[in-house]
Amino acid sequence: MSVQKKQIILNEIAFWKQNKLLPEHYCDFLTALYAQGEKEEIEVNNQAVLEKEKKKASLKMNGVIFLIGLITLAILTALLTMTSNILPIIFAGVAVILFVYIAIKLAKNNSLLTPLLFVFSALLLLGVTFKIWEAYFISEPNILLFMIIANCILWLLSGVFLKLIYFTISGIVGIIFILVYIAYIYIV
What we know:
This is DUF1700 domain-containing protein. The chain has 188 residues and is mainly alpha-helical. The protein has helices spanning 3-18, 24-35, 49-81, 87-107, 113-136, 141-162, 165-187.
């Protein structure tokens, strides 16, 4: 057996012993069996191989989530602050399409990144909606209400078809709030 394979096995046995997954005397026996008297050559590491890989994957995932969140925040900031520039709308549209495409690809793997990409896409789409209203329809507040209702319906349909409860709830609550607002405006 190669030294690398022995190292992996001995690391796993040490992890089992440390976390009391097997009785201590079983772990000692397995360590002696796999070390084959080569105790000096092979150093046993306390962390299991899978645990190290999970930590590396978790750090990568956190970095990706941070980067995507930063991109979303930058585009939303550009949408809200730039008044006469169409470039943020184009960036936001491209980001929405890209985020949804990546989320659909990652949905097969049940990745943690999938729901975050959907949420970031929804936020960017809402920001684009406000920017389009501001650029073309600012004198018509009713159009904004209909655009927000369209966003809420999109959230509701996305929630139902993709089985995402947070989108379903957001769509329903958004529609209810807008309808209550419309009723309040026209009644009072």
